Amino acid sequence: MNTPTLRGVLALGGAAALVLTAACSSSEDSGSSASGTQTAGSSQTLTVFAAASLTTSFTEIADGFEKDHPGVHVQLSFAGSSDLVSQISEGAPADVFASADEANMNTLADAGLTAQTPQAFASNTMTIVTPSDNPGHVTSFQDLANPDLKVVVCAPQVPCGAAATQLEQVTGVTIAPVSEESKVTDVLAKVTSGEADAGLVYVTDAQGALAADPGSITRVDFPESKSVVNTYPIAPVKGGKTGLAEDFETYVLSDAGQQVLADAGFGEPTRSGVPRTPNVTPGATAK
Question: Strand 44-51 to strand 230-236: parallel, antiparallel, or no bridges (unpaired)?
């Protein structure tokens, strides 16, 4: 039986140390991905909570973001902004929140649940939609006060509902809706199904419906809509993957993200309550 030499023992010890060092390094690399820094071969999921009116545009934006960030999967959750705030406040895991108004974002920020100052990225206004044959012959906002019409709006705590209430105040018109929905897509659904004669939705929702099926609805624009504009802010959620969330926010504010939003009918933010970050190219740092 051969006795190990001192040199052999030292060599074995050195090899073991190298293995231990490599293992520690690998462990540290794996841990870094949790903060949003992606490593080679790693896979991450970014959870984005966004207002229902962003469904089409954010789905396209998420696809573009994933192409620019291999190994990242964007999980989208759409609902009324107030519902999303409630979910996040109750502990639902989210990395990014995009609201359809400043009020709901402020609620989240005031609760200390945003990781950074929210940034405005888009704006939206309201329009009237009716079934394609416009059975109620709606031609103006004032027509929505007709008691014979079945009108559907969003609930007042939802951004699209708050906008409807503001329009009533601006015009002096009182609407008696047959139902108040928790998200704007539900208002649109009741009109397209024929359950309602008219509904108040965002311009972007009407544009999307007509693009998908030109005969699905009739859109009735009215001049008073320009007096009520919803600004859309976005922010990383505290406790989430802040680094990756910042990357997603940067992409939304980039030329690529802004083009998707413009194509969907969104406008530039028009209020000063939430600061706007200038357009940047994907991958660049927003300043």
Answer: unpaired
Q: With a cut of 60, say whether residue 191 has pLDDT above it.
A: yes
72-79/198-202 β-pairing: unpaired
pLDDT in tens, 208-250: 999 999 999 999 999 999 999 999 999 999 999 999 999 999 9
Rounded to two decimals, what is the model's pTM?
A: 0.79
Which CATH architecture fits 44-123+231-264? 3-Layer(aba) Sandwich (3.40)
Task: Please check if 202 is assigned to a binding site.
Answer: yes
Instruction: Write out the E strands in the chain.
Output: 44-51, 72-79, 96-98, 119-124, 126-131, 151-154, 179-181, 198-202, 217-220, 230-236
Task: Report whether 232 belongs to an annotated binding site.
Answer: no
Residue 16 and residue 46 in contact, taking contact as beta carbons nearer than 8 Å: no
Instruction: Please check whether residue 149 is in contact with residue 197, taking contact to mean a CB–CB distance below 8 angstroms.
Output: yes
Beta-bridged to residue 44, according to DSSP, are 72
Q: Residue 280: phi, psi to the nearest 5?
A: -135, 160
Q: Phi-psi category of 172—alpha, beta or left, where left has phi over 0 and alpha has psi -120 to 50? A: left
201 marked ligand binding residue: no
pLDDT of residue 90: 98
Residue 23 has pLDDT above 70, yes or no: no
Q: Which residues contact 100 (CB under 8 A, 6 or more apart)?
A: 51, 52, 53, 54, 81, 124, 158, 159, 160, 184, 202, 230, 232
Q: Provide CATH 3.40.190.10 ranges for the chain.
A: 44-123+231-264, 124-227
For CA atoms 95, 100, 104, 109, give the dihedral sign.
positive
33 is in an annotated binding site: no
Instruction: Report the number of secondary-structure helices (H) and strands (E) in the chain.
Output: 9, 10
CATH 3.40.190.10 fits 124-227, yes or no: yes
| pLDDT, greater one: 269 or 135 | 135
| Token pair of 112 as six digits | 């200390």
Q: Distance (Å, rounded) from C-alpha 230 to C-alpha 184?
A: 13
